Amino acid sequence: MEENPLGKTIYCLQGKDIAAYRDARLKEVAPNTVRHELAVLSHVFTIAVKEWSMTGLVNPVRQIRIPKAPPGRDRRLNPGELDRIISASGSSVLPDITRFAVETGMRQAEIAGMTWELVDLKKRTVTLLDTKNGEKRIVPLSMEAVRILSGLPRRIDGQVWGILPRTVAIAFARAVSRARAAYEKEFEEKKEKPDPAFLVNLHFHDLRHEATSRFFEKGFNPMEVSAITGHKTLQMLKRYTHLKAEDLAERLK
User: Fold this and answer.
1) Structure confidence at residue 242 (pLDDT)
2) How much of the chain exceeds pLDDT 70, in percent?
3) Residue among 21, 22, 84, 240 flagged as catalytic
4) pLDDT at 210
5) Does 155 participate in catalysis according to the annotation?
6) 36 is catalytic
7) 242 catalytic per annotation
């Protein structure tokens, strides 16, 4: 069994130990996960010095190279993809969830956790008590989002969808796979070459990218978009937002 690089007292940990931990973890998990773990570890040292009076303690995390953050995904829906995914969903609930995600920009966990008591169809809002940021957020609903919710049956347990977040992602991935297979079969029958990027590398979370970009394209400013999506900073919004150059060109007329 390999020795744990962090299996020492806090005073004995050195930069080389943190570096060894970093390198070992990079073989197991994504760089961004390692970044988060190192940030937590660095915070422990900061608290130890400031609040536990461990004077003289050096933060070894600051002595090593932190893995670079991965580039933000810029995948947006191509024309026709959404309809094909919905047609291939094989589910009674996924089509509405998919459309609702594009209309609201809500995360899959936020959508899956919705309850009717926090939905106000008259005011066109849904209140989210448990968000990724740990803060309550009230999401405004478009007329299409209201139409989707209005057509849903009411469940006895008070849940809007009655589905787990992970189930949403899995069902969406399967729908994309089935839609791509059907697309390829169509082109095979026509003896034509399919678009290699169509219905490829598309995840449920990309619908949040799509929704956020659409908000900007509709003319909402960053403060308004952040109020809808819950992004905390402009930098975070820029990571999720990829405006189409041709649409911006239209506004420059």
Assistant:
1) 58
2) 92
3) 240
4) 93
5) no
6) no
7) no
Query: What is the predicted pLDDT for the residue at 117?
Result: 95
What percent of the chain is predicted at pLDDT more than 90? 60
Say which of 174, 178, 205, 242 is annotated catalytic: 205
3-state secondary structure of 6: coil
Q: Where are the domains of the chain?
A: 15-63, 81-251
183 is catalytic: no
**99 annotated active-site:** no
The pLDDT of residue 231: 83
* Confidence check: pLDDT of 1 > 70: no
| The predicted structure's pLDDT at residue 72 | 67
Position 10 pLDDT exceeds 90:
no
Q: Name the catalytic one among 84, 107, 180, 209.
A: 107
| 154 in active site | no
> Is the full-model pTM beyond 0.85?
no
Does the domain at 81-251 match CATH 1.10.443.10? Answer given as yes
Q: Which of 132, 166, 218, 244 is catalytic?
A: 132
